[in-house]
Amino acid sequence: MNSNNKVSDFLITVRDPSSDAAQQFSKTSMRIIKDGGRRVILVTSALPLEGKTFVAANLAASLARLPEVSAVLIDMDMKRPELHKLFGIRPKWGLTDYLKEKATLKEVLYPTPVPGLSLIPGGRTKGGPEVFSFSNLENLFRELKEEERRYVIVDSTPLLPFPEVDALVGYVDAVLLVVRYGKTQRDPLQRALGLLEKEKVMGIVFNDVDRKLLKYRYRYYR
Fold first, then answer.
1. In what order do the strands lie in the sheet with 110-111?
2. Do 97 and 123 touch, CB atoms closer than 8 A?
3. CA distances from 40 to 23, 113, 176, 211 (A)
4. 3-state secondary structure at position 51
5. Residue 182 — pLDDT band, cuts 50, 70, 90?
6. In terms of pLDDT, which residue wins out, 14 or 127?
7. What is the CATH number of the domain that holds 126?
8. Strand, coil or helix: what is 188?
9. Distances (CA, A) of 184 to 61, 190, 213
10. Whole-model pTM?
11. Of 9, 52, 113, 141, which is most buried, counting CB atoms within 10 Å of its CB?
């Protein structure tokens, strides 16, 4: 069976790699590679329903397609941990189990139908802000970065409603902020940017842009 049949239509970079959207994710992936040593990247948004999970999943899949590169996608959206459903995975363990020392990295790292891409699902138990205070989170990223040419994409909760993201930002190398065209308002976007260290903001991903207004549907800006 073709591995593409096991993944959700949500994964446009796998389902339709020749599409405009997939091509933009490919370009974004190349820019991340050229950026240098920042390999743990948090994908978030100011508010819910901006498309951050869509961007995180497709960006990770796009990175994994590059030569000599592997990727790990981590579900750190503790409110709605659903990334495993996109890949048809039924996990026994996940991130919260690792952070609470109930499972090892090997036990929570699941291969996906996408070659070169692994997933760490959210876990069996929901976590709050206290989960991210554990030193095990730093250990997790250190372990994952031991493999050269491995990139880690983290899908978190949105910045403004949930306090745990503030703690999480301190552990990652860079942040991509997702902005949904026609939905994201200026004020929450400015407040979200104000919460981030300027040097950690790798860029902004514009999601759901009207193709009649811009040549491409998804663009990445430094």
1. 110-111, 117-120, 70-76, 150-156, 40-45, 174-180, 201-207, 219-221
2. yes
3. 22, 22, 11, 31
4. coil
5. low
6. 14
7. 3.40.50.300
8. helix
9. 25, 10, 17
10. 0.87
11. 52
CA atoms of 111 and 146, how far apart (whole Å): 18
- Cβ pair 175, 203 in contact under 8 A: no
Where in the sequence is the domain holding 40, given as residue range(s)?
Answer: 3-221
More confident residue, 126 or 177: 177
Choose between 174 and 82: higher pLDDT.
Answer: 174
| Span 86-97, average pLDDT | 91
Provide the pLDDT for residue 218. Answer: 41
60 vs 15: CA distance, rounded Å: 14
| Average pLDDT of span 36-50 | 88
User: What's the DSSP call for residue 211?
Assistant: T
